Amino acid sequence: MYQTPQKLSKKKIIELCILIFLVLYGLVFLINYIRYTQSKPLILAIHVSSEYDDGVVDEYIALGYIYRSYRRSSISREELVPFWIGRENPESEADLPDVLTDYEVPTNSRREDKYRGLLYYFDGPDVVGTYKCINSSGECNKATGGYDAYNILNADPVTRIEEDRTLTTIHDKFAFVDDSSSQEVQYGDCNYIRTIYLINYLDDEKEILAKYADVKYSIYDAEKEIADGENNRFIVRSAENNKWGLISISAKGNITEVMPFEYDSINYDQDTKYYILCKDSSWYIYDLQNEEMVSPTSSDPIYDVWRNDNLTYYYKTGKKRTVGDDSFIDYKIYRIDGTEFLNLDRVTFIGARSNCIFYLTASDNILHFIDYSKEEKYKVKLAFNNLEKDRFNHPAFEIAREYNGIIILYVYQGRELKYDYESISVNTVRWENNE
Predict the structure, then answer these.
(1) Which candidate, 22, 165, 270, 360, has a CA 20 to 30 Å from the CA of 116?
(2) pTM of the full structure
(3) Which residues in 252-301 belong to E strands, given as ranges?
(4) How many angstroms separate the first and last alpha carbons of the chain?
(5) Is 96 helix (H, G, I), strand (E, B) or coil?
């Protein structure tokens, strides 16, 4: 006999609605928290932007919590807070402070870059200028090359730069200094931000010309140990919107914007003289001299661009992947017109030279050497594939040195320090010598 289903009581309906609301609320909060950690606006939130005389604060007001992005000279950070936590409003700071000049200059007979809390600038044997820290109580330094969230310069453990490279002086009277002030971080950090001043350090003309959140060099002279900008053009990050741009600095100290401050990443390739750009999660290679894109766009970061002996251009891209317990960048190679050249599974390292490419596949632990016709010329069997090294562990291999097309590899027999290495010489010019 058919029975009419019992209707839910009013109490049960209310409880069910509350449960559904809590589940949806928790799901939205989880999504918003993930977006917050990625410095992205919240969903289902009201956007309010408040301007101050030293910058802007963006607020995304959701149900019960607020995401704030402070982009002011007096405070620069992000926070996700309950709705009752009020907006911080520190006293505004001048964008360009006055250079400190009323201080004693100790004799720096050892010609150190930094001596007794001062930065020293020399012209031959003579001190032509000094700089006293403004923000950091003696802890400032001559600026070294920074990096963006993608840290492309140090993505590969094999080619990673172990020491910071100091930027050279510009026109023998200007310099970048890192005079960062520590910032209290309560709820989150707004990426990698420094306080970089472009200064005129000459004793009779001392002044701060500009303020940036970070700076990168373009070229590096290993013999002279000098990091510099390409043709006095430097990649800098805006102190206002934290985006990267390109500036040119003239001998008179005039600053010209060469590329607008709208990029998430800018990197320069010294050999091809191309710039690798990222804007709105889209990557491409740019020829500044001819003001044109020379590659299709990529959704994955572009890590390198080069040309071979036949003057054919290639670029390396890759996607971060996790397989089991392993996290790695899975690299691919394309010709600059977008034609696929190398697309294998789990290629975790690629080294490019003008006459060959050598790459590691984590699936077989083999370092393969191929020429640009894709013919395999040589291969090195590795004991393992981890390329990270530290004071307790060896990498799978290291490039010890190179000369006249010969690459000397140190191939380690085990990960722990107790294991030694085998030295292997790979002649990339006369491949028959490798047999």
Answers:
(1) 165
(2) 0.79
(3) 255-263, 265-268, 275-279, 282-287, 292-293
(4) 88
(5) coil
